[in-house]
Amino acid sequence: MILEIRLSNFFSIKDEVVIDMKAASLKSKNVKELSDNVFSFDNEEVLKTIAIYGANASGKSNIIKAIRFCCAMILNSTNHNGNIKFNYRKFKFGNCENKPSNFFINFVVNDIEYEYSFSVMQDKIVTESLHYYPKGRIKKIFTRDERKGKTKKDKYNFGTDIKRPLDVAESTSDKTLYLSRASQMDRDIAKDLFMYFNNTFILGYLGHNERQIDDLFKAYKPHLLKALQIADSDIVNITVKKIKAQGKALNVSFTGTELKDARMEDTMREQLQIKTFHKADPSISFDLFTEESAGTKKLFIVMLSILDIIANNKVLLVDEIGDSLHTDIIEYIFNLFRASGKAQLICTTHNTRFLSLKKFRKDQFYFVNKKEDASTDLYSLYDYSDFRDTMDLEKAYLQGRFDAVPFVNDSIKNLKQLIDG
Q1: Buried b / exposed e across 218-252, counting CB within 10 Å, b at 16+?
Q2: pTM here?
């Protein structure tokens, strides 16, 4: 589970922004009726869902993008070498190009709380640290600061929980996270945390990954059919099988270290064939990818992803949760997380229908606004202590009470001037 995420100097994010999944102390009547929106950990309540609202170009997507980049660093930094530059951008104004970008995450694995952070320049790691709470009190696993001295002993400081930690450090370049290298070198705590980010912190729907689709379909076929029927689909059966098909594959050859040839060639390859069968005539099949609507294809992928996430108490990160989905389906997704045990969802949306304190707590709503210096500001409805549960949240948002909406001056006069030039 995720308890907190902090980011600074990523894309449009300049100053630190915080996503806090720890539930605030709220005692209203509405909140008491929303007990399914939280779960308990270590005598505290944790939010299952957070929805982020904001105008276009305010930075909502950049928050999701920054989190995805940081998780990708954990998973892939052992592949970094040479003159590689990390695949992100810093805030471009105010001399931020010369300052590090910072990531902090407070999370729980196997019922133990961890705090992990790192800071990066465009081409190297600057700092990194990992602490945890094995017996309710914070304990250092390691800290790292590449600015301290020239040797690994100068730069690293270790607790007692990783075996032969300096061996790992000696194999860790300034482009690689120590956590990633320690996992690769089979160190116990590091392996558990790497697997958490690889398998449990899901950075988006599974897309068209054929292996994942096949595995999840085998595990959840009955649940998937039921989920689609609840969503008012008339699909009564689905089959998935591997077939040999003619297709294009990239054929690359090398001479020494130089690319000699790269061309697309016809080849026989194995691919998934997914067929749907409808209530009108269950004997007739439809190819999912060529004969079904975009909405049906999206619903198939979404539901297959979410069934695994809620069954295993994973975390899902989604930008624009309403993309290609009807409002009722989005509410269905939110309700699936409410009904789950400890699954979590962090998403962005423009759909104001869900701005209701009958459905969500105040601390589950976040707003994004672009400040005067063009940087992204993130804040919670909980920060507005004068906003009562009895007020119309959707109306207040659309009126601009929390900023985070575009102010469009589309008077007829302005539009005529635009059209006439």
Answers
A1: eebbebbbebbeebebebeebebeeeeeeeeeeee
A2: 0.91
For the record, the structure tokens of 57 come out as: 């170009």
**pLDDT tens-place string over residues 62-91:** 999 999 999 999 999 999 988 899 999 999
DSSP 8-state secondary structure symbol assigned to residue 36: G
State the burial class of residue 47 (Cβ atoms within 10 Å of its Cβ: 0-12, 13-18, 19+). buried
Name the band, by pLDDT with cuts 50, 70 and 90, for residue 266: low
Number of Cα atoms under 13 Å in the Cβ half of residue 330:
22
Establish how many alpha carbons lie within 13 A of residue 397's alpha carbon, considering only the half-sphere containing its beta carbon: 24
Measured from the Cβ of residue 130, the count of other Cβ atoms closer than 10 Å reads: 24
User: Domains in the chain and their CATH numbers?
Assistant: 1-200+312-408 (3.40.50), 210-308 (no CATH)
d(CA 367, CA 63): 12
Q: Measure the CA dihedral 147/149/150/155, to 10°.
A: -70
What are the distances in angstroms from CA 403 to CA 37, 284, 383, 410?
26, 52, 13, 18
Q: Assign 3-class secondary structure to 361-399.
A: CHHHEEEEEECCCCCEEEEEHHHCCCCCCCCCHHHHHHC
Structure letter (DSSP) for residue 79? G
The residues near 338 (Cβ < 8 Å, ≥ 6 apart) are 36, 37, 48, 49
Cβ atoms 218, 272 nearer than 8 A: no
Closest CA to 193 of 140, 137, 130: 130
In the beta sheet, which residues pair with residue 38?
Answer: 47
Q: Give the CA distances from residue 151 to residues 62, 124, 126, 173, in Å, rounded to whole numbers and listed in that order.
A: 36, 16, 14, 12
Whether the Cβ atoms of residue 12 and residue 55 lie closer than 8 Å to each other: no
Residue 56 has pLDDT above 80, yes or no: yes
Give the C-alpha separation, 127 to 100, whole Å.
Answer: 9
Query: Beta-carbon neighbour count of residue 63 at 10 Å?
Result: 28
Please report, for residues 53, 164, 200, 216, 299, the alpha-carbon distance to residue 192 in angstroms, rounded to integers and kept in the order given: 33, 17, 11, 22, 32
Quickly count: other Cβ atoms within 10 Å of residue 413's Cβ.
Answer: 9
Tally DSSP H helices, then E strands, for the chain: 12, 18
The single-letter DSSP state of residue 22 is B
pLDDT at 257 over 70: no
Strands 344-348 and 315-318, sheet pairing: parallel
CA–CA gap between residue 374 and residue 183 (Å, rounded) = 39
